[in-house]
Amino acid sequence: MSSDKTTLDKGIPAEEVPPPAVVAVDPRLLVREEGFKGYITEFKRRLRGGELGSLPVIVALIVIWVIFQSQSSKFLTSGNVLHITYFLSGTGMLAIGLVFVLLLGEIDLSVASVSGLASALFAVFTATHGMNVWLALVLTVAIGAGIGVFQGFFFAKIGVPAFVVTLAGFLGWNGLMLWVLGDTGSLQIADTGPIHLLGQNSYFMNQDIAGAYVLATVGVAALLAGSLVEQGRRRKAGVPFRTTGEILLRTVLLAIVAYGMAIVLNNAGGVPNALVFFLIALIICDFVLRRTTFGRKVFALGGSVEASRRAGINVGVVRMAVFGISGGFAAIGGLFLAGQTQAATLQGGGGNLLMLAIAAAVIGGTSLFGGRGNVWSALLGMLVIQSIQTGLDLLNMNQSIQYMITGAVLLAAVIVDSLSRRTQKSSGRA
Question: Mind telling me which residue stretches traverse the membrane in this protein (predicted)?
Answer without folding.
Answer: 52-72, 84-104, 109-127, 133-155, 162-181, 209-226, 247-265, 271-289, 317-338, 350-369, 376-395, 401-419
